[in-house]
Amino acid sequence: MRSEIVSLYMSGRNYVGSVPMLREIQFENWKSYKKASMLFDQLTFLIGTNASGKSNALDALEFLSRISSASDITSAIVGDSNTVNLRGGLEWITYEGAKNFTITASVSGEDEKTDYEYSITVSIDGNTAELENEELVRVRYQGNAQRRLRLFWTDAPDGGAPGITARLYNTKSGTKQPMRRNLSVLSQLEIYEMREEIKVAVDHVLQTMRSIFILDPNPSSMRAYSRPSEHLNRDGSNVAGVLAALPDKRKKIVEDLISRYAAKIPEKDITRVWAETVDRHGVDAMLYCTERWNAKRTLEMDARGLSDGTLRFISVMVALLTQPERSMIVVEEIDNGLHPSRAMDLLSAIQDLGSKRKIDLLVTTHNVALLDALPPKMIKSVAVATRNSSSGASEITILEDLPHLSRLIAEGSLGQLAARGKIEESIKAQVRNA
């Protein structure tokens, strides 16, 4: 399987230097977060009770992805003909009615000694969201020291003005460049002639933000026919179309891999998963699978006969096998619809494919069995969303940062601790004692 993935995806690609990845995101006055940050690993789990702020954290990533592609800032929040609104829209986009919010992202640079910090502040005025401040900083590491260089930043905008002035690094006070306030400066700079260090940084950060893919599979929509397509829809509705559109050689390898990973998911073993067009014009595709019911009997069915859990699993596999390498895939409630006994199979599949294809995953889960399946070394990849007892604000805690983690783990498995609310209790006790 390893050789198949390598031959399929690495041939013909040349990666020069370090390919950018998202390291950390910080929120200030963002939805239920007053001030918080979250670190990312190759596989990061975000857990927490209902209404703890998990979905709000994912929405921040969606917002960054949208504004990186020159989406109007207001539309990035309220949606348009091509995108749905972020939950709550403009009315609930800021913490307790604050006038603005700030999101800061840390991105790995072109080598191990370089990072980039990108920050955007957006003000809310009635039915409009506008740029208030934006900057990009290069961070160079020399031992324990840092050298910070502001590559671009903005002046404070005039009240009500449609434009904002960006300053591009020029070794002095910055070259002034008029920009629009309804778009991110980062996306506008893509077409400008700039100093090389600014261009490299802008390209790195844009590539990272555009590689964020939010997957929220909707099994009902996956049971319908879909048009062949190069890009997977957010709801997974065109899984069949994405598979059917692949070149023949690549299609066979991808479908074989999905079939192997999916074999243990349903009660009856899946022996094959594939998609094909069903009309002479090749405009409608359907997803199919073959199940082995016993030694002598197999059953072929289309997506209409597959369970919700199986369809969600297939959509995750398709995303992992067709999204560009170095992407970040975000899946909310990744194990929804899967039986707890299949948790280990799911974990093994996403770990294996994510590692081999160099794709970061951020997933939320409530599944006790999935958390119990995590090996001890992965505890550092678990983040917990909670609500502060005093302020009600959402907070994110990295599990390994808890001072009494070993004592906590001694009380039971990670899944059982989460189910009994012990993790949240420990975090709140730490806050009270701080």
Automatic annotation (TrEMBL):
Annotated GO molecular function terms are: ATP binding; ATP hydrolysis activity
Q: Which Gene3D superfamilies match?
A: P-loop containing nucleotide triphosphate hydrolases (3.40.50.300)
**Top-level taxon in the UniProt lineage:** Bacteria
Residues forming the ATPase AAA-type core domain are 43-372
InterPro entries for this protein? ATPase_AAA_core, P-loop_NTPase, RecF-like
Pfam families (UniProt xref): AAA_21
Q: What is this protein called?
A: ATPase
Q: Which organism is it from?
A: Paracoccus aestuarii
